[in-house]
Design a protein that fits this description.
3 helices; single chain; mainly alpha
């Protein structure tokens, strides 16, 4: 996720930046899926990932 965000910020076009932010958002959801499989949905990591997903969602919509 952090590398997708960094790469996105390094892109010159808004469309490219948005694409990498969207990839990072997908990675957050993948991590949450792993927590579901590991039966750790109630963990503090889930909450952190949920907050990160919300922040990324706002960032992606800002770039729309």
């Amino acid at each position: 996720m952090p590398l997708n965000l960094a790469e996105g910020r390094g892109r010159t076009s808004k469309a490219d930046q948005k694409r990498f932010f969207s990839i990072a958002f997908g990675s957050v959801r993948e991590c949450q899926a792993i927590l579901i499989i590991a039966d750790l949905k109630d963990s503090s990591l889930w909450s952190l990932l949920d907050k990160l997903a919300a922040s990324l969602y706002v960032l992606i919509k800002k770039w729309a």
